[in-house]
Input
Amino acid sequence: MTARAGNKASTARAPVKAKAIKTQKISGKAAEAHETANGPSAGFPIVGIGASAGGLAAFEAFFSGMPADTDPGMAFVLVQHLAPDHESILTDLIRRYTRMEVSQVEDGMVVHPNCVYIIPPDRDMAFLNGTLQLLEPSAPRGQRLPINFFFHSLAQDQHERAIYIVLSGTGSDGTLGVRAIKSEGGMVMAQTPDSAEYDGMP
Output
């Protein structure tokens, strides 16, 4: 893994083992920073993962190499571009790769460590006060940016505890999410283009 730190951290190199996935750290601060009076609403790291085309193979590689009892306990929130008019089977597919509890998000769902949460079709999603909030998309179909939407809210709520992993995909959705996480001192990691099925997003 190639680490390229921002203004708040030094440059370092370290290996990452997550099966076929290779990532590079773009920026960040320690994810386990102490909470402040205006700190994050969750007492554990929230790891958001954004993907679109080629995301399923990347999810498989990621969770196949991820222990079910992370230390410290982390929650994983998956935001993928989904067809708005079809029921998603992503939840069932992810269950094949991990022993963690996997759930499709319902509005107001409380987040717990060592669990995986998946955005449902035709919804925007935000993280607020330790819960996942679902909203009807305001942008028309074809112009929606659910990854940016979620990670902006995650950055505002979790600050330096926010962790954002960008996996395989096309298009620019997620770019503004990277900026939001970086501005709050959180950590951003991207799948290396040579290991991504589609390298437009990472």
User: Anything to note?
Assistant: The longest helix spans residues 146-158. The CA atoms of residues 84 and 122 lie 4 Å apart.
